[in-house]
Design a protein that fits this description.
By secondary structure, this protein is mostly beta strands. The protein is built from 1 helix and 5 strands; from the N terminus they run H-E-E-E-E-E. The protein has one helix spanning 3-16; strands at residues 18-31, 34-48, 51-69, 79-99, 104-107.
Length: 115
Amino acid sequence: MENDKWEGLKEEIKRKFKILEEKTEDVLGETSDGLVKQGVAEVLIIKTPMGKIKLVRENRPAVLDKKFIYSHRAGQAGRTEYTFSDTEFSHKLRAFKWDEDEDDWKEIDAKNFGN
């Protein structure tokens, strides 16, 4: 979802529903060097007639190249190295619904959005 569409969606949501929380979080990924920041996530938690909904938009640098580095020695594991863009980003939108029974967020399957 492009930046202008995301901002439009946020404005529409703010107009129709009560905002419970709006924040940004770091997206961390596990690498051979440990946890590394791989992007930023914008989080919007809203109160709807369906209950609490959390929208998460992840912004990550686009992957330009992916190299597999193999070890030919016994007991050594291979690894994957990525080259990321400094100017291009990929965006992913995920939606979660609060589950009162399990006291946790459950991801809403994107296939069910139209139904």
